[in-house]
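Regression report. Comparing outputs from two consecutive submissions.

Submission 1:
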Amino acid sequence: MATMKKLTILAAALTLSTSAALAANDPGAARIEAFDAQLTGVMKEGPTLGAKGRYRRLDPVVQDAFDLSLMTRFAVGPAWASMSDADHQALVRAFGRLTVANFAHNFDRYDGERFEVSPTVQTRGPDKIVQSRLIPKDHAPVNLVYRMRQSGGTWKIVDIYYDGVSQLTTRRADFAGPVAAGGAKALLSHLDEASAKLLQ
């Protein structure tokens, strides 16, 4: 029985190693694995770093992994076309700050969580769909699906689905009110206020 148990553990370990290797062979999945690893590292130092320290550590990570320009354009919606280039640039920066602040706020400490990236990557038109799970120590896993698209010769995240809910669509709904009320200026204020609250 002891030998059988050892063989079962070995087989499971080999399966996990094979899955990780397969995932790493796909550029989209490899990108998500690298992002998850960096996020986990920040979580482990979370309480020591504090909210602003986590923000500083995650800012270059998010800037590198996400296509923030495309995401901002979609989140703003049709009003984007009538805004100036200066507004576009300011909104992309503000959206980036909000994205980083959101990760810094929600991933503030480590308690045995782990990420698991599926080696099966789907292709849908220009996009890759990478499935992942955040597995807490004592709670049910959270399903994460990353939609990715090539930008500048590399695969970047353009949306995340948390248990089936598109975060980009959620942002668009949230931004609609400020955009309708006061255009780019009102939306910038909304974004800055939301980021500041997350980092308190």
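Submission 2:
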Amino acid sequence: MPFTTQDWIDRFVTDLADVIGAIGGEAATAGPWTVAPADGWVVVLRAEQGSQGELAVEFDRIATEALAKRIMAMDTDPPHPMVVDTLKELCAQTAGSMVLAPPLVGVKLAIASIARASEAGPGAVLAQITVADAAPLALRMWGDIALVDSPRVPMPVPAPAMPARPAPSLPVSASSDTPPLDLILDIDLPLTIRFGQAEMPLRVIAALGPGSVIDLGRSPDDPVDVLVGNQLVARGEVVIVGGNYGVRITELINPAPGIRSLEDRF
């Protein structure tokens, strides 16, 4: 059966609830709704890589501001830019989580725009996300988005196999000083995900407390670093997997030299 626009909407709402629950530390549930969001923002997700079209999601202003205030653990209402950044981060993580399960594996979704809400598109669907005792987060979604078939690449015709030549035997004394990689593959190593870093005066650090905000010098779209020990081995994007944080690898940093540098430590 084809993956319809309604299926995309259902997947988004369900995964958004998981993301909100993971970030806020409280269970969040998704379900249908009858009240349209008001005076909020519209996030447009553009389909790429194995899909085409766009999905628009409208968020209620008051409920979104309350959610940002709750996530940031603030006593006062968050400023407009902070609400938009929170909304952008929630949608980016949801877009990454949506494509981890079939049939969307391999699909890529990107945030095309975030703007103040105006007129809803045709066929809009209402939904809500509820977190503990907070007011429901009203959503309205519409768009035209679909999977596309990946182009088929002709398989190359294998060349005739050449008769193998026996490898010359080496004396036992000719072994390398570097231990074989197979001997260390079962060793547990610490893997660290680095979201960012900052340098701050001791006076500022001593004044930190609940509700303090630390600028890590990175935007929500920047990749996070994946380190083994203190060695940078990859970069990736944060996703939600089963309600928990995860990282999807998007770039390897010199994989062969990186593995060799780890091997040389043992």
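Expected: both submissions complete independently.
Actual: both completed, but the second showed a warning that disappeared on reload.
Relevant detail on submission 2: Residues 234 and 252 are 4 Å apart (CA to CA).
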